[in-house]
Amino acid sequence: MADIDVKIAQWKLVEVGRVVLIRSGPYTGKLAAIVEIVDHRRVLVDGPSTEEKKIVPRHVLPLSHATLTHFVIPQLPRAAGTGPVKKLWEKNEIDGKWAQSGFAKKTDRIERRKNLTDFERFKVLRLRKQARYEVQKAHAKLRAAAPKA
Predict the structure, then answer these.
(1) Which residues of the chain have pLDDT under 70?
(2) CA 54 to CA 29: how far, in whole Å?
(3) Are residues 88 and 138 in the same domain?
(4) 15, 16, 52, 58: least CB-packed within 10 angstroms?
(5) Which residues contact 85 (CB under 8 A, 6 or more apart)?
(6) What is the Cα–Cα distance from 115 to 118, expressed in whole angstroms?
(7) Beta carbons within 8 Å of 86's beta carbon, 6+ residues apart
(8) Which residues have C-beta within 8 Å of that of residue 14, sequence separation ≥ 6?
(9) Please, what's the b/e burial string for 107-133 (b: 16 or more CB within 10 A of its CB; e: otherwise)?
(10) pLDDT computed for residue 96 by the predictor
């Protein structure tokens, strides 16, 4: 038989140290780390963010209200207090890594678009029309230059 090295996809596992995005409840849109697994449906989370408005207090969260991210705080002991969690959170720069992720950028873009004024929406419309015109012009040039079959 051949030597096959099978690797398990790690980022979907519910584990102590996994960073989750809270999807519903009073802390919607905030990040927290899994500190302890209560049972197959609930986890104990703690979110000691470096930003004051993004702090999530320690509480039990149903997994149905959380989205697992691919960020993990390595070597986080089970049931660690808020102090050690905060130190490891800052050491691993979770807030910075999250800000650079595609999901965070997408949600920021959606939020910014949601809060546009009427005039800003009009400016976006005009810019999109200009961009579409330039693309169509370049496409027409390519079609004209292409040999006829």
Answers:
(1) 1-2, 8-11, 149
(2) 9
(3) no
(4) 52
(5) 33, 35, 46, 48, 73, 76
(6) 10
(7) 48
(8) 34, 37, 43, 63, 68
(9) eeeeeeeeeeeeeeeeeeeeeeeeeee
(10) 92
Say whether 75 sits in a helix, a strand or coil.
coil
Give dist(CA 123, CA 4) in Å, integer.
57
Question: Identity (one letter) of the amino acid at 132?
Answer: R
Domain that holds residue 124: 116-145
C-alpha 76: how far from chain center: 21
Contacts of the segment 141-145: beta carbons below 8 A, 24+ positions apart: none
Q: What does the block give as tokens for 9? A: 């996809």
What pLDDT, on a 0 to 100 scale, did the predictor assign at position 7?
73
CATH number at residue 41: 2.30.30.30
Long-range pairs, 10-16, Cβ under 8 A, ≥24 = 11/68, 11/70, 11/72, 12/68, 14/43, 14/63, 14/68, 15/72, 16/76, 16/77, 16/78
H-assigned helices in the chain: 82-91, 94-100, 102-114, 118-145
Q: CA 129, 134, 135 angle in degrees (round to 5)?
A: 95
CA distance 135 to 28: 39
Q: Are residues 120 and 91 in the same domain?
A: no
Tokens of 80: 């660690």
* pTM for the structure as a whole: 0.73
